[in-house]
């Protein structure tokens, strides 16, 4: 089953289908695209076999690098933004059938799961017995997949929301905590406490997590390390690579390569 990068689809209502699992190959048409906020009863896996996707839910942003997926629980409002080169699958699952958390998470996708998803979307539409066997393996394997820490916590607190929007629009913005505090009419210590309370992170770590998510998205879309480093406002490529390696344990090139190999 193939659909364009949009939702809802006129010819497919995923919640109206009795099938426990529905796998859809999504056509990004070679352009950046976004599915605006929506929700459905079935839980959803947003699977990327190439390019990258960012899923936004009320509590945060979740990155889907190549060969990974984001799990979005049942009835959670969300939007999906894909890179132009994204190779996507949306897998809708009756949530009570799979042992995945009641919260969003980014998970790796093994070669077995990848082939199951491709087959369920493309090749198992007319053989119900075979389809049921493939679904059984899929539901058994999903809870075993490792979780990737590619999450940016967001807050509905108005002042933090203003900062988050500004940084998302311009990740290269290098204003200090004191400067941001002045911008939202707080003391530096008050803003530091607010960020920690709302996100569980220091301001520096929170901004770094945004940089990681943006960096992985752009690298997955084919941007060079030099270009991403400049777009994020780093003084040198070395400084960017050092930040990336400290956060994720690998250089940008090795990280993307290892995700593909391990999955």
What does this protein look like?
InterPro entries: AraC-bd (IPR003313), Homeodomain-like_sf (IPR009057), HTH_AraC (IPR018060), RmlC_Cupin_sf (IPR011051). Keywords: DNA-binding, Repressor, Transcription, Transcription regulation. Residues 161-258 form the HTH araC/xylS-type domain. GO terms for molecular function: DNA-binding transcription factor activity; sequence-specific DNA binding. Pfam families: AraC_binding, HTH_18. This protein has 263 residues and is of the alpha+beta class. The protein has two domains: 2-148, Sandwich (Jelly Rolls), CATH 2.60.120; 155-262, Homeodomain-like (Arc Repressor Mutant, subunit A, Orthogonal Bundle). 40% of the residues lie in helices and 23% in strands. It contains nine helices and twelve strands. The protein has helices at residues 111-122, 128-141, 158-169, 177-183, 188-199, 203-220, 225-231, 237-248, 252-262, and strands spanning 2-4, 21-27, 33-38, 43-50, 53-57, 60-64, 68-72, 78-82, 87-93, 105-108, 147-148, 151-153. It has a seven-stranded mixed beta sheet, covered by helices on one side. The chain has a five-stranded antiparallel beta sheet with strand order 3-8-5-6-12, with helices on one face. The longest helix has 18 residues, at 203-220.
Topology diagram in text:
Elements: E1 2-4, E2 21-27, E3 33-38, E4 43-50, E5 53-57, E6 60-64, E7 68-72, E8 78-82, E9 87-93, E10 105-108, H1 111-122, H2 128-141, E11 147-148, E12 151-153, H3 158-169, H4 177-183, H5 188-199, H6 203-220, H7 225-231, H8 237-248, H9 252-262
Parallel strand pairs: 1-2
Antiparallel strand pairs: 2-9, 3-8, 4-7, 4-9, 5-6, 5-8, 6-12, 7-10, 10-11
């Amino acid at each position: 089953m193939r659909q364009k990068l949009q939702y809802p689809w006129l010819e497919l209502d995923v919640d109206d289908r009795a099938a426990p699992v529905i796998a859809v190959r999504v056509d990004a048409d070679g352009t950046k695209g976004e599915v605006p906020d929506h929700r459905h009863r079935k839980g959803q896996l947003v699977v990327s076999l190439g390019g990258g996707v960012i899923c936004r839910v009320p509590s945060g942003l979740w990155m889907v690098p190549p060969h990974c997926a984001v799990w979005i629980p049942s009835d959670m409002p969300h939007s999906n933004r894909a890179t132009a080169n994204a190779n996507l699958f949306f897998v809708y699952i009756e949530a009570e059938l799979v042992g995945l958390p009641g919260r969003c998470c980014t998970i790796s996708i093994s070669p077995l799961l990848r082939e199951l998803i491709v087959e369920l979307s493309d090749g198992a539409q007319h053989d119900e017995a075979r389809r049921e066997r493939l679904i059984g393996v899929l539901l058994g394997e999903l809870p075993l997949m490792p979780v990737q820490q590619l999450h940016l916590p967001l807050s509905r607190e108005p002042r933090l929301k203003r900062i988050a929007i500004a940084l998302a629009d311009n990740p290269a913005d290098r204003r200090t905590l004191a400067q941001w505090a002045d911008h939202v009419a707080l003391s530096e210590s008050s803003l530091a406490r607010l960020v920690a309370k709302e996100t569980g992170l220091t301001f520096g770590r929170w901004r770094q997590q945004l940089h990681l998510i943006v960096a992985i998205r752009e690298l997955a879309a084919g941007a060079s390390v030099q270009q991403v480093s400049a777009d994020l406002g780093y003084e040198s490529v070395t400084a960017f690579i050092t930040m990336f390696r400290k956060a994720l344990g690998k250089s940008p090139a090795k990280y993307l390569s290892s995700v593909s190999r391990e999955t």
